[in-house]
Amino acid sequence: MKVAITGASGFIGVPLRQVLLDAGHEVLTIGRAGETRPDVVWNPSAGTIDAERLGGVDAVIHLAGANIAQRWTDSAMREIRESRVKGTTLIARTLASLTPVPRVLVSMSGVGIYGDRGEESVDEGSAPGRGFLAGVAQAWEGAADLARGAGIRVVHPRLGVVLHRSGGALAKMLPIFSLGAGGPIGSGKQWLPWVGRRDVLRALRFFIETPNVSGPVDLVGPEAVRNQDFTRVLADVVHRPAIIPVPAFAVRLMFGDMGVETVLGGQRVLPRKLLAAGFTFALPTLREALQEAVASGSSTHPPERQ
To answer: Can you give the pLDDT at residue 297?
Structure first.
């Protein structure tokens, strides 16, 4: 297949490109001018893209979007939302205009769509929750409607916390835990939906190669854990104690609304639809995922295995 990727220079995009190449796919990168010389130039803010270069593409994996792990000022919240909605609208509109249209658009989303659900178990059939990220995710997924309307199969991976030492939340946590200064956050009872990066890469390939998968799909590990359980396992993996709790008020001071919604809140999400589609996790337990994530080099990724 001929596959195009937005966000191809990022934490997921870089290893994903290699995974797809290793599987025999042809890969095009979509990026801004000057960004590691992309194959297809676009500017989501300006609404421009070199559509001609996308001719003959079979699949598009849309990963691009501003980082949510920052203090949520008014300008940051606007960037987080607009980068997702404008980028997805541009991609969907462009793909819908192609002849023939691609077979599939995999357009990223997140478990933040469920909001803070306490002890409630949620899946793809659950109603969206409340909060900033829930609103962003709903608009983000809705922006792909132009592609759906053109007959393109659209998949929305609702991504949990991706585990790998080279980026994401774990890259920020490892130095702290390696010093023995880690600990549960707030009450520690909030649910933390996690997934190993290798399984994210495998699932994204699975989505483009599996015609019967469409719509939202929760992309999280099959073992549901609380923050306190995550803390305990991570500390054990790095062979350090984790006895210093981070009080809720400190999270609010450091991160503001972002910390309250993403760190102190949580969702008990299980990958029911993904498992039902026949996907098998390479890293089905948190311990396995953390062991691989911690052992992996910062510039390498494990070989793709099915």
So the answer is: 56
